């Protein structure tokens, strides 16, 4: 650490020593006069470069006196070259002319909201993502966006991570990559651990809260995440990112691209490795990934191929921390077997076409294939042979019915299909029509292996003790229409029909035969209006979403009692505005659920907990989000959400062991809070830039009390917490670098001890004549004060 600090100090001193003259200016669109953020400015032969900021401003420092040839480039614009004499005095304004070619933005436009769309959304650009991308996963990078609560199993933001938006977990958040579904078809979950360092290949992500607009894949039941991967660069580049930090966390990323070759072709590549010991004992992560992209970029047609893959091994920390250990042993891990690990690899293949037909029509088509396979390994002490479908073992006349076993539970699945859309815009711009949809198939094998047993009996290594298969076909078609009734007033309609055929058969992990087939057809309409007046856009909308149960809802419930699909009616209304240095969004939402599926404590015939439908529940709230640039040096921003999240009535079932015969006691609750749905979530951010190359950011996060179940019981709750992070960024343009950036991030600077996630269960113990209820709470503690330090070099 000492040597690193000395080397860093020497580097900064050398950068200062090179200072000679500088050249400052602004890059703008020649037609609109709008500033261009992210334009590349490069001094040829000198070997120095920089990029323009959000106001289009740039400063190219440490230039030698004399003649300097400058090259300015930006995606979608013609490259501009100009020679200057240094030192240069006066105000420099560089105007770039737009280039007539098809934008890659259309790849995701069919599933995105625009400024005139009457729904609630926020788009996060590449620069904002990169500022925190020092090794932690995507949910953690989005922690300061409105209504978001994040958590990490290992406590340090690496490995298994998750997020909730408006209290909705990842199984109810729709995610797409370039319009292609990302959610697991059966569990509906999003597993970012299978896509390590994916953030380094993301150009932007749009978060739509509520139902939003029609998209592909599982229905949006609280929010959607719409990722667009990196677009091609005009100029060739190479980039090396390295970071290290607490808990022996390391991230190494190498990126390179050819730029636009022959004005038509471009190729990009990334290779990443992330390691962390985790905050929780033994909760390490070993993550590897790559991203490859290449394409043809013509005037009217774009053909692009993406291939990306992630491979992860994580030591399990799925079992939470008992409440009794919260004060004295927060890093305790239930697991002790040295190979209690999760192992998975997921490969993604995408071929994307987008084209322009005349002046009114655009079309987009994507073919995709995802191959996933992996297992988690477990050591099981004194497990019954019957749990594995095995007979007892007799040795020397003694019948042995249990033994120690090591098992692996496997997933081996294929997911493939297509998505596409056609967009028509009338000559006068009054009509904007999108017709789209897709068809996808999931084919997944679930099986378990015994790889070791202390007493093996008649078993052989890799004997499968369960084996079942599932096939799910998911297809949808939608039509979206935006019509400008008069200047500034837009009417919006969005109609989607989604069909699902799901079949499964074989033996489940609890030795039950699970054969079944379910079919659904859902109609999901959406209507709204928006009105643009000056710098403000007012909007209101009503949307419907229907969602099928997950795999476990089918396999854990008796087939004759399959849960009903869930339905959501969503109202959104708000205003968004941008005027000068001030921008804000304010909105109200009401999300009315019918037949929402929740855990109630009810068990099936083999003792597994199942989810049940509750007739009526809702979420209602107000969200405020804004930013103000007080001066070139100071910027203030923040967001806050106030909400009520209620279930009209549900029945809890409690295991009762107090009598000779096991039974469950039922308790009915009315107007109780939905689990993991805090009434207040807020963030605040202050940025201070004393000089152009140095940025200091203070970021705060508050999350109110959350209940671990749906009983509103204070004894089964997560305490409110308030955390603060500090980020310091320094940029420079030393010789032969386009950009050099140092980021220092201190997370949880005041060492807040907090737990954003957990679980609970209650029971009556044997012989308890007074029937005193025993409740056990388990938590996922997050790390105290910790740091990450990163160095990014762009050539």
UniProtKB/TrEMBL annotation:
Among PROSITE patterns, the record links this protein to:
TONB_DEPENDENT_REC_3 (PS52016)
Q: For this UniProt entry, what's an example GO CC term?
A: cell outer membrane
Task: Check the record and name the Gene3D superfamilies matching this protein.
Answer: Carboxypeptidase-like, regulatory domain, TonB-dependent receptor, beta-barrel domain, TonB-dependent receptor, plug domain
Q: Give the TonB-dependent receptor plug domain ranges.
A: 115-222
- Name all TonB-dependent receptor-like beta-barrel domain ranges: 331-749
**Superkingdom of the source species:** Bacteria
Please name the InterPro entries in this protein's record.
Beta-barrel_TonB, Beta-barrel_TonB_sf, CarboxyPept-like_regulatory, Plug_dom, Plug_dom_sf, TonB-dep_rcpt-like
This chain's protein is named Iron complex outermembrane recepter protein
Origin organism of this chain?
A: Algoriphagus zhangzhouensis
